[in-house]
Amino acid sequence: MINLSYKFDQNSSSLELEGMPDVSNGDSEDTIGIVSSWKLKIIGSPLLEGEKDHLDNLMQVILQYSRSYISGIRKTFISSKKIVTIAPFGQNHKLLLNSTREGVNALEIIIDDSELSDLTRCLDLLRFDSRFNIKWSINFEKPFTKRHILGNLNKSNMNFNLLYAFIIFVISSSLLLLIPIGNKYEFNETNKNNSSFEDKIK
Predict the structure, then answer these.
(1) What is the C-alpha to C-alpha distance for residues 101 and 74, in angstroms, rounded to an integer?
(2) Which of 17, 116, 166, 178 has the smallest C-beta neighbourhood within 10 Å, fewest atoms?
(3) pTM for this entry
């Protein structure tokens, strides 16, 4: 029995898959058609491993989240079987992994932008690799419309923009009030001179 192993490395992430050809599907001897196991190592985080179903769920949320994040949309994504969840966490991203085994607590992993990029790159390399003849459970990607992007932008960011605009308006108005106006003094002097002239005439 042929046992194959392929690895995808990026700066902070390393994804390794083991499997074998699916003879019934006509796979060549260097093609993985059946995934027996996989391992994912993210620097500073515990080693992740599981079956194809777990990897499917991970790919679903990471690819969707990264695609939305690039478009300026920060929202939570949950896999179809609720095994994997990824959500914004301040300036970082929180990955929540639920075990399918009873009695095992969920695992939380915090990753930054560069780690998210490396992880996304590993998964992209995997799904487009010709050495794998596997149908992944990933939704067909369609370009985001402008309406979709605007409708899903983080409302808190929009509120902050309004707040900043209001603060700038208040500061600008205050500065204008502090600017000295000399016309009033000159006007009073003119009125005083006019009154003296009128007195002389009388």
Answers:
(1) 30
(2) 178
(3) 0.70
Task: Tell me whether residue 190 is exposed, middle or buried, using C-beta atoms within 10 angstroms of its C-beta: 0 to 12, 13 to 18, 19 or more.
Answer: exposed
Q: At residue 13, what are phi and psi to the nearest 5 degrees?
A: -130, 145
What is the CA 79 to chain-centroid distance, rounded?
16
**Residue with structure tokens 């075990």?**
99
Alpha carbon 54 to its chain's center = 21
| Cα 189 from Cα 58, distance rounded (Å) | 80
* Distance, CA of 166 to CA of 36 (rounded, Å): 58
For 139-154, write each residue's pLDDT tens digit: 756 555 445 455 555 5
Tokens of 17: 């898959």
CB atoms within 10 A of CB 142: 7
The pair of structure tokens assigned to 51 is 């079956």
196 and 127, same domain (yes or no): no
Residue 36 to residues 3, 8, 55, 139, Cα–Cα distance (Å): 9, 17, 11, 23
Structural domains counted in the chain: 2
For 58, the token pair is 């991970």
